[in-house]
């Protein structure tokens, strides 16, 4: 009998680990998880101001390590590094998922308006591009608005998750759209509070990613 797939989760921030692990435990507890944290990615990206060739190479090296360690699939939980993850995927022979692509696929199933809420500013430009490209490939029209939840990430990094969640919920409650999308994995814990404040459907990256991986590998 085949053992459960071994999935490596690669993080650029410690705060993304609990949400994705919680999603796996809820939807696919049999999966074998391994977490890798490289928390210099985000400050290096901010310092460089762009995604450099050296940074892309670092992602490829991490992917190669995961393969050697027996990974059946890799899920990157860092939304500001799309091109680096794509290069990693081109060079590896196992499934490699960008953090948000499963959520994008759900967003573009039909014409709709979307509010993308984010807590990490550098992730927004690449996510906007990726959503538009996904919608174009799907043949649907998406009216996309982006909203930075200012102060939320700082609150979470300052060990104040209640304030982090409150800021996200307040932003979600103000949206007028068909679907709300949470950009960062670390935003997922605010979901339960947010759904109590708005009737608009909310998609999170961890739940979407787990569902896609389970379909691919289970």
Arithmetic mean pLDDT: 94
Tell me, briefly, the overall form: globular
Provide a count of the helices: 10
Q: Report the sheet with the most strands, covering strand number, pairing sense and barrel closure.
A: 4 strands, parallel
User: What is the straight-line distance between the termini?
Assistant: 13 Å
The CATH architecture designation of the largest domain is 3-Layer(aba) Sandwich
In the CATH hierarchy, the third-tier topology of the largest domain is known as: Rossmann fold
What is Rg? 17 Å
Q: Specify the CATH class of the largest domain.
A: Alpha Beta
Quick overview of this protein structure:
The chain has helices at residues 17-27, 41-48, 53-68, 82-91, 101-107, 123-138, 152-157, 161-173, 191-195, 205-217; strands at residues 6-11, 32-37, 73-76, 96-97, 112-118, 142-148, 179-182, 202-204. It is of the alpha/beta class and 218 residues long.
